[in-house]
Amino acid sequence: MVGTGGYIALIVIGILITVGVGQILYRSGEPFLEEVFQNKDTARSLNRLLVLLFHLLTLGVLAMISIVDTPSGTSPLQTIVFKIGVVLLIVGIAYGVSMLVLIRVRERRRQAALSDAIDQSLAEQRQERAPGRIRRGGEGQTPPPQGE
Question: What number of other Cβ atoms are within 10 A of residue 35's Cβ?
């Protein structure tokens, strides 16, 4: 069991880690979200919401972990290190899952844009081959009579 000093140390260290990682996410996340959503205002708003969600989840997990007892016989320092490790693992997993979701959204948007471009190109090619239409460069036109 950890005394009051251990709880305070765990909370202070956890808050410092949370704020530090949150700032990294805030600075690095916006360009990625701009690419995904192709709108600067949407990306900025979503980035703020995601960072807020990150802070709330991390601090909530930190609060819950701080009251979990560890096996007897461990030193207070070992207990604090263990609990911070658990918090970091949970936050890392949550971060990884959210990155996978955003990457999938980005790839689906890219595939949709590519599909639209291919559809448009095919439609243009069909129009060029439509019967009764004169093609550029003399293709498909009847040659003028020769020898007269």
Answer: 13
Let me know: does 79 contact 2? Beta carbons within 8 Å.
Answer: yes
110 inside domain: yes
Q: State the pLDDT confidence band at 144, using cuts at 50, 70 and 90.
A: low
pLDDT per residue as tens digits for the range 86-129: 888 888 888 888 888 878 888 888 898 899 999 999 998 888 88
Q: Whole domain around residue 40: which residue ranges?
A: 4-126
Residue 44 contacts residue 29 (beta carbons within 8 Å) = no
Does the reported pTM lie above 0.90?
no
Within a domain: residue 134? no
Number of domains the chain contains: 1
